Amino acid sequence: MRHMLILGGGTAGTIMANKLASALDERDWRITVVDGTEEHYYQPGFLFVPFGIYRMREIVKPRRQYLPGRIQFILSGIDRIDAEKKTVTLASGEPLRYDCLIVATGADIHPEQTEGMLDEEWGRSKFDFYTPKGADRLAQFLKGWQGGKLVLSITEMPIKCPVAPLEFLFLADAYFTERGMRDKVDLHLVTPLSGAFTKPTASRALGEFLERKGITVTPEFDLGRVDSKEKKLVGWDETEVSYDLLVSIPTNMGDACIARSGMGNELNFIPTDKGTLKADGLEDVFVLGDASNLPSSKAGSVAHFQSEVLFQNILEHIEGRPACAHFDGHANCFIESGFGKGLLIDFNYETEPLPGEFPLPGIGPFKLLEESAINHYGKMMFRWVYWNLLLRGMELPIEAEMSMAGKRVRS
What we know:
By secondary structure, the protein is an alpha/beta fold.
């Protein structure tokens, strides 16, 4: 019997486990998922917790609930991967042999990578919202905050869900407005990017939104250290930005087991073929979701579209045929803009976000790069889609390959 081993039981790993469980004969293939925690979080929900829109118990479920009975789930950390011997060593020292390996170990924040970030003020005047604990602590803090200068700082790219920092600021604008204290809060975005987003058209459109909402942007800021005593960010060029409340998007890195295995770059992301999703130079190893070094967004929609491609390529691979499917970098993201409205962007490696209608030309119902109530409902409805359809590997109406239907190309 051959062994399909999946490292990571998050969005990417769970989708693939479900797809493969329905396609591979259990008389021929054993499927194992390894993850270090029992809880599966709906990570897009972290954004809403600080503003009281979601409570933490609404965005967490047991991981095993979404893995079919035929799948073996091992609760364990991972020590290292030996691609030559086709073995994964668990934290306990137990070895697991595999015939095909899918690495979906994701990415996590590492505030300790920035001087002065992780000290006694972490969780007092400095927070994150990319973790359950961080989002919950920030929610408690904001309830009693009387105002001041709120700085959202992106330490460096890439990060999970690149639009989340903007969404946080849009929601903060609405939150403080509804509390009658927006005039007491100075909102700032400090980013290493040249503008609000990674793609020029979207960056201009989202930058205009920030300006209309009275949110200041400090671009091209390379954070060197944080001075907690003086409450200021200090760039590598000694440029300074002061704050009263810092909401940080710390350095995002892949799992430490990637470094121990000698497989990753300086941020522990695995070099991966951007079309086939095969790990560069490694036999029988594929990479899915945030664990790769691909120039696509680290987001749930990308993991979904990648899984459609990788599913086809895995089936070809185990039959000894070359990859037939290619990932085009497709990403599709609702952007919550506050006050019951949202935007939507749809793009890939080659095509940046464009205005138009999605998914049907002239009909929509969703608007691209345009604020609407239906986009907000799409964002909020996705939590149900995530738990009930996406994680279970079911077919969704959005194709893995990006379509130009409904998009308007600006001259």
